[in-house]
Amino acid sequence: MKLRSKEWFGRKGKDGFIYRAWMKNQGIPADMFEGKPVIGICNTWSELTPCNAHFRDLAEAVKKGVLEAGGFPVEFPVMSLGETLMKPTAMLFRNLASMDVEESIRANPIDGVVLLCGCDKTTPSLVMGACSVDLPTLVVSGGAMLTGKFQGKDIGTSDVWRFADASKQGTITEEEMNQAEAGMCRSAGHCAVMGTASSMASMVEALGLTLPGNAAIPAVDANRKVLARMSGRRIVEMIKEDLKMSKILKREAFENAIMVNAAIGGSTNFAIHLMAIAGRIGVELDLEDFDKYSKGVPLVANLQPSGKFFMEDLYYAGGIPAVMNSIQKFLNTDALTVNGKTIADNCSNQKSLNETVISTIENPFNPLSGIVVLKGNLCENGAVIKPSAATPALMKHTGKAVVFEDIEDYKVKIDSLDLDVDENSVLVLKNVGPKGYPGMPEVGNMGIPKKLLDKGVVDMVRISDGRMSGTGFGTVVLHISPESAVGGMLAFVQNGDMIELDVEARQLNLLVADEELAKRKQNLKLDLNKYTRGYCKLYVDHVEQSHLGADLDFLKGGSGSEVLRDSH
Ligand code: FES
Ligand code: MG
């Protein structure tokens, strides 16, 4: 076994002295440097990322496992992206964090990596960065919070949107809002519904990057630590087997991830992140593949926001292995996973333990699932909608556009009683795409205008070039590409234009005559030069459109793990 770390710790003379001596200030015995696989534990712990705030404990469990298997664990921090606090949106920094991860791994004497991932963006950013180095790599997710409680009812992040509407209408008091706020996040862990964090944890499990069962074990369940410790043991073996990421992340694994995301009603953000990961590891994947491979896979997991239950319930019902067992006939079951076994090996013995939470495919919770990819003159390169979270009656709908030019315009007008809007209108939000905002925030599930809420309207067709929280729901068309800020058709929509959505026909069209559109296009002014320095400039100059995964153009692919020059 030729260890990469030997290029540091196995050296004689000045270089070896420097590489080892300073490490020894941590009380590390000499034999740790004598040919033990060095395992980097890539930690996104941060008190500003509450979903990952328990990760120092998790890292300790991984370390125990690494030591038990004869490895040398070294924990290191990388940029942590907290969904709730970061402005203007954590997504702006996904690619930046991925660069931190990639360069931290490559520059250091690391033979294999355990990625500690939790809150939404912390999973794709770490996996993307690690793919570009391609060492043996295993993911440990942090696990979801316990189910929230409010007035005797179960609650989770998806209720935030309901509470917001109720508070606008005055049907919930401030005192009750305070109670809900105190009861929702009861324990360590990430959002407890099938939002983006849970979708990402399920994605890495479906891709084969985790030990079986990773996604659903609650953050505070003792079995989470067992999984972390077993992962520590396993990564040491993976180095001996040279089981690199590229041996697991084949095209089949990506197809499996798409099918699992459909079966669990996973987040629309999944599409953007999976494409970015595929781009790093060199697997061809198009937006159309999300539609193609989710077609026919029913929704078997009854989880919020598409259904009723929470991540804790998914765990008690058998977790992702039980979901995969249920949809086994669709999957590429011989795909290899990090434990050296196939998907079939990992899920064949895990039947659903509760069919109201994880159903069979014969009797699914909802035959509609997955991410539908729309095309049309309003989204030449595509847009997405999640039918399981939408209103069936609105899936074929033509209505008058009510346009918000940007997020500020939206905030000023949405609750104005003068807004010219009715329940058949189509709400249109511009300039919330990757370059436009910048960073493509989760604002696509615009609130229902107050005057319609008061009439009892609960859903409307809403379209934008932005994203939606994985915990959100509604008939919401997202990720319109090309975005309005680069002159996509969305930029030319005006109040009163007719917009046609037909989910079954995969169409989203602006019903305006070509001559009129040509006239509008002549008056277009693009303004992307607001950012003159720093990461925002780099991002706006280089970010790709959402249908390609919104990675920076120069980050596609990888540079391997070799570094030829020494530091002194
Ligand atoms: Fe971190 Fe939802 S805010 S997972
Ligand atoms: Mg989110």
TrEMBL record:
- Residue ranges occupied by any Dihydroxy-acid/6-phosphogluconate dehydratase N-terminal domain in the UniProt entry: 36-346
Where is each Dihydroxy-acid/6-phosphogluconate dehydratase C-terminal domain found? Answer: 357-550
UniProt keyword list: Iron, Iron-sulfur, Lyase, Metal-binding
Molecular function terms, GO-annotated: lyase activity
Origin superkingdom: Bacteria
Q: Which SUPFAM superfamilies match?
A: IlvD/EDD N-terminal domain-like, LeuD/IlvD-like
Q: Which InterPro entries does the entry mention?
A: Dihydro-acid_dehy_C, ILV_EDD_C, ILV_EDD_N, IlvD/EDD_N, Sugar_Degrad_Dehydratases
Which Enzyme Commission number(s) are listed?
Answer: 4.2.1.-
Family per record: Belongs to the IlvD/Edd family.
The name this protein goes by in its record: IlvD/Edd family dehydratase
Q: Per the UniProt entry, what species is this protein from, by scientific name?
A: Sphingobacterium daejeonense
